[in-house]
Q: What sequence folds into this?
């Protein structure tokens, strides 16, 4: 094993050491190579994370600990209120699917984006992430703690928190860059492995960029010199800052995060979205099964107040890209933590495919709707609206299609995926 390490880091010639070993036992070398490459990857991640940990201040870490303690105490008090959910901790998707035969969604779709909390639960910086994938600023954690105080602040003070929560939007377009790989002296083989990993990460990120850019009026451009930019890198997990923080801000798509759904979700955070289950009106749509919630992940279910959360007058979307899956944050994998009050949505909650309201709310947030006239929007029926990049085209709600959104369309997720994977970045 020692010769392999010295070879790959370039300290000794590979062939001179490899020849006798390969002739002696080729199978053993293959095993050693796989083992070493795994160790090398872990070393690179550790190297990167030593730098990433500095992104999360001690104030944020302490604040998150305080916030989680308060949330745990609050939920312990209200445990009995959750009995109306009508679920035992052992209920699972298959049992509820039998009760809701009107839907034909698969279990994998219904679980939404459980991969993000699951992947990040193994991250070395998991304790510093809000709701498992958000890096907060000092100002944001202070506002969240203030928001939890019952009646200690005036309405006027809390209303002022709206601007501080949303922070700044990318009004001139989102600027991004790609971080260089860790500067470690490795030979060609190790460099190629890192190159493959970076390629997967960049491809997923650009698919997410393509979705938000082609479905909104938000422009994206690459720049390595802009002061305010999102810098993509392969960290220990999947995470992002919320909105524009006023400097270079990191967005990580580490191992296991290099997918279209995860990239689109994390870019949603960078553009200003919180998680759907954080909405102030979420209790009108879902019930928490607190018996199943892992205490260390309790902040996944932190609910905003109406003073810090503007839903832009749009309905609660169970199937949106920003909603976690029904079993997210569970003590036991696959057991429910969130249950829709409308049971038929149990198998669609938190899909990894962007939905109609993901697009519409982003267009409202960035004033894209104003680029088309009222008559342009009016011609789009059934709640559709004119596309901000082409006002003659309608953006239709899920389940509708046609020129003016008057045609019923089945299996809209399949149609959506087809359009995504035929986008210009995959041609």
A:
């Amino acid at each position: 094993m020692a010769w392999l390490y010295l070879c790959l880091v370039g300290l000794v010639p590979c062939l001179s050491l490899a020849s006798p070993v390969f002739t002696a036992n080729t199978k053993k070398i293959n095993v050693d190579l796989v083992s070493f490459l795994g160790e090398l990857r872990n070393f690179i991640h550790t190297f990167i994370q030593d730098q990433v940990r500095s992104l999360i201040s001690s104030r944020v870490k302490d604040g998150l600990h305080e916030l989680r303690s308060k949330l745990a105490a609050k939920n312990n008090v209200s445990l009995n209120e959750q009995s109306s959910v009508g679920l035992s901790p052992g209920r699972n998707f298959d049992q509820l699917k039998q009760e809701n035969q009107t839907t034909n969604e698969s279990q994998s779709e219904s679980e939404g984006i459980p991969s993000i909390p699951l992947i990040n639960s193994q991250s070395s910086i998991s304790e510093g992430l809000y709701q498992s994938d958000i890096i907060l600023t000092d100002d944001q954690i202070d506002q969240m703690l203030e928001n939890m105080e019952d009646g200690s602040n005036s309405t006027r003070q809390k209303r002022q928190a709206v601007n501080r929560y949303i922070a700044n939007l990318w009004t001139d377009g989102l600027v991004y860059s790609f971080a260089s790989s860790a500067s470690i002296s490795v030979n060609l083989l190790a460099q190629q492995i890192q190159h493959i990993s970076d390629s997967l990460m960049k491809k997923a990120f650009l698919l997410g960029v393509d979705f938000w850019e082609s479905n909104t009026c938000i422009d994206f451009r690459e720049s390595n010199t802009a002061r305010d930019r999102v810098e993509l890198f392969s960290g220990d997990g999947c995470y992002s800052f919320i909105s524009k923080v006023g400097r270079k801000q990191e967005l990580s798509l580490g191992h296991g995060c290099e997918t279209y759904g995860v990239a689109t979700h994390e870019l949603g955070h960078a553009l200003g979205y919180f998680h759907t289950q954080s909405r102030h009106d979420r209790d009108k749509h879902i019930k928490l099964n607190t018996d199943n919630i892992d205490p260390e992940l309790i902040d996944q279910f932190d609910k905003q107040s109406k003073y810090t959360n503007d839903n832009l007058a749009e309905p609660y979307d169970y199937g949106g890209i920003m909603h976690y899956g029904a079993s997210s944050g569970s003590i036991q994998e696959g057991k429910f933590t969130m249950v829709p009050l409308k049971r038929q949505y149990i198998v669609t909650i938190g899909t990894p495919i962007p939905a109609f309201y993901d697009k519409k709310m982003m267009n409202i947030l960035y004033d894209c709707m104003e680029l088309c006239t009222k008559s342009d929007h009016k011609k789009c029926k059934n709640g559709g609206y004119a596309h901000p990049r082409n006002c003659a085209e309608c953006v239709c709600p899920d389940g509708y299609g046609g020129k003016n959104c008057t045609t019923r369309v089945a299996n809209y997720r399949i149609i959506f995926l087809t359009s995504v994977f035929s986008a210009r970045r995959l041609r």
The first strand starts at residue 134 and ends at 135. The two ends are 43 Å apart (CA to CA). The chain has a mean pLDDT of 76.
